[in-house]
Amino acid sequence: PPPPPLAAAVVSGEKAERMALLQSGDPQQRYLPVPIHNLLAEREEGNLGGLALERAVKRMRSELVGLSRDREVKAFEGSSVTCMCVDEVEDRYLLCGYRDGSVSIVDCEDTPKAGKHAFETVQRLERSQAHRFIVTGCAWYPLDTGLYMTGSFDKTLKVWDANKEANAHTFALPDKVHCIAMSASARHSHVAAGCGDGTVYLCDLRSGSHHHSLRGHRGSWVSSAAWRPGDDFALVTGGKDGTLRLWDVRRTKSCLAMLCQEGRPRQPKRGRGDEDDLS
């Protein structure tokens, strides 16, 4: 729902102020953050609730989003991008997976140059080097930019050495990989791979095995996965059956909770459907 009239008026004023700065041409003003002191003042006076403030700030930011006039990512042509991930160490390298099975890394370091600047591709793995089918997930190793992972419909999760531009290890999985999630925990090095058989396989980078699996999304594939921040062993997955599941990866019966808006999971028919046209 939209914010109350007071917040909307503040957002409108902030947007006008921001647009005036952008059109002024002053290089020192163009990249200043949008001032929100008016919203904070209204919050302090009790005229604006906490939730309304959050909505107003999100709406303000979304209205100001636009393509950069002097920065662009120069990706190679030939296929559409299917997944992306920016490293958390340097916040600089953009990892991209493509529909044809290829992979690239773009250096997004912002250098103060006059005129338009294009971020170049610094590494590219062709389909013959990377995957045979569409790349459905990619993730950086959270502690080092020298390692990253990719998952694909060719039923593999591959670990790559970014410095050598070579495959360090390949996990051969029973079904198509629909999503991957790398844990940021220092206590274990698990990569969760959601597959087409409804199973989440935990690939251990230290041992090179994937013996531990999480089963619960029945009759459908796992479409998304994310590790819970602040909990090293909690994983959340979403499936085509319409459910979200919370797992504790240390337990045998590790499904702690299930959320389903429709009351009971869907049982979609397998066959030529949403996934088969991408293989």
Beta-strand percent range: 35-45%
Strand order of the largest sheet: 2-3-4-6
Stretches where pLDDT falls below 50 for ≥5 residues? 3-11, 21-34, 270-279
Order of helices and strands: HHHHEEEEEEEEEEEEEEEEEE
Task: State the helicity in percent bands.
Answer: 10-25%
Largest sheet: 4 strands, antiparallel
Q: What is the 3D shape?
A: globular
Helical/strand content category: alpha+beta
Briefly, what is this?
This protein is α+β, with helices and mostly antiparallel strands and 279 residues long. It is built from 4 helices and 18 strands.
Chain-wise SSE layout:
Elements lengths: L4 H20 L2 H4 L6 H8 L5 H15 L6 E3 L7 E6 L6 E6 L4 E5 L9 E3 L1 E5 L9 E6 L6 E6 L3 E6 L4 E7 L4 E6 L7 E6 L3 E6 L7 E4 L6 E6 L6 E6 L3 E6 L6 E6 L19
Parallel strand pairs: 1-5
Antiparallel strand pairs: 2-3, 3-4, 4-6, 7-8, 8-9, 9-10, 11-12, 12-13, 13-14, 15-16, 16-17, 17-18
Helix pairs in contact: 1-4
Architecture overview:
With 279 residues, this protein is an alpha+beta fold. Helices cover 17% and strands 35% of the residues. The protein is built from 4 helices and 18 strands. The strands form 5 sheets. Strands 2-3-4-6 form a 4-stranded antiparallel sheet, with no helix packed on it. A 4-stranded antiparallel sheet has the order 7-8-9-10, with no helix packed on it. A hairpin with a 6-residue loop joins strand 7 and strand 8. The longest helix is centred in the N-terminal third of the chain and has 20 residues. The radius of gyration is 22 Å and the shape is globular. The chain starts with a helix and ends in a 19-residue tail after the last strand.
